[in-house]
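To fix ideas, we give here one paired sequence and structure record:
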Amino acid sequence: MRLLLVLAACCSGCLAARVLGLFPTLSRSQATSFTSLMKGLAARGHQVTVVSAFPQPAPLANYTDLDMNIDGDGLYAAVMKGLMARGGDRSWNPEIFRRTLSTLQMTAEMTDMALMNPAFQQLLKSSDSQFDLVVLEAFASDALLGFAHKYNASVVAFCPSAGYPWVLDSVGNPHPPSYVPSVFLRLDRGMSLWQRVVNSLLEVGLKLLREWYLVPQQDRVMRKHFGHLEGLPHVSELQARTSLLLLNSHAAFHPPVPLLPHVVPVGGLHLRPPGRLPKELRRFMDGAQSGVVYCSLGAGLRSADLPARARDALVRVFSRAKQRVLWKYEEALPDQPGNVKTGTWFPQQDVLAHPGLKVFVTSGGLLSLMEAADRGVPVLGLPVTLDQQLNLKRAREDGYAVTVDLANLTEHSLARALGRLLRNPRYRRAAQERSRLLRDQPLSPLERAVWWTEYALRHEGMPHLRSAVLHLGWAQSLLLDVAGLALGSGLLGVALAWHLLRRRLSVERRAPTTTNTQSQRDSSPSGLKKKGDDDRHNSQ
């Protein structure tokens, strides 16, 4: 028995790896998911180094931060403030392609700027650092794959959503437009014919966008910063070598889609067991006889930046509520009601776990919705961004959310929505059903993410799980070459049949003319005379 324990300890030590995490995002909520994975790997004994704008507040064992020293929260909040002033993101289907192009262009510029940051420059200029695994965000920052070539390391990509089309294409994962709605469209899970046409056209357009714009753009950025490395391959080749793609998705929140073995959903990996609330906060919530309403627009959105019209409507509705209200509000609140407690930050997962919490007022970020569903709390959504609107649309379909359009928010519409959630028990029952679906799995999302990451390390990049579609062009993967051959063969057959039919008709048109001419000659006088002479000649 002791020998087995020694062998197990030795094997565990052999698996310890040097892991580099590259997360230049300005979104704290996205950084939360990424760093949850990195902390999980550090807890397993791996030596973890993370480059981001959000370092850990306290030192962790086996975890080293390379701080980008930029105000990610401030920059992100400035962008969101302008969006809230316009009543949220109002751009939908007609402008989606242009907006996607603009977003990808902005992300490429941010990746370029990030690679000039001293934290990244420290890695670029270092000649003695070495890593076995590179973990990076999967959105539009593929230029960072140059680090995988520099260190000859395996790659794990982490997508902060259920998977953008160009991200899935980069690892060869199918997403058939016949029944998988685009993440950019407000389409139902059962699409009509016209919706499938629109979905298919967008799918082809995004494939062309990736092939002709995104990949060349990322390759240019990569060569700008890694061009000095010997044998640097094209960025598309580095994409195809990705060992593992982790998706921040779960069947409790997203429709079922086909996934390759090395594309693993780990939605909810940031979730943790509830902790003990701070004493003052616990006293406030415990003393609420009618329960508590919790309002927070998330880590990247400030309630203080809401338009005055929306803020005043919230204040008036909260002041008339029987419940106590806990509100993440970052400044002094004008005319603050007596039943409202404000603060710049609250331990959200612990607040949502309190048995007296009745409703969660949120902008609808994916992590916040996962936390609400995990605790079985119904949601009142005030979406600002496009992805929040799509998240809340699914939550409404699943029955645990009511949404109020920020651009048209009034005191009446807000009070009506809050009243529905407080009075109708079906919303809480639907939220509790989401909780059961989310929790009913053999491993926690974090345990699953760590296991697959270590699997990639044990099997040196997992080449045995890569799809053969990576060796095909996008036209071949869509069977456009087969369709073209079938169409060409069909057209050739039709042309040949038409040609043969025309020849037959031409012959048939000429045959009656010859017969009629012969009949006319036989019926003429000269013809009859000649025929009589022939008869006499034959009789002789």
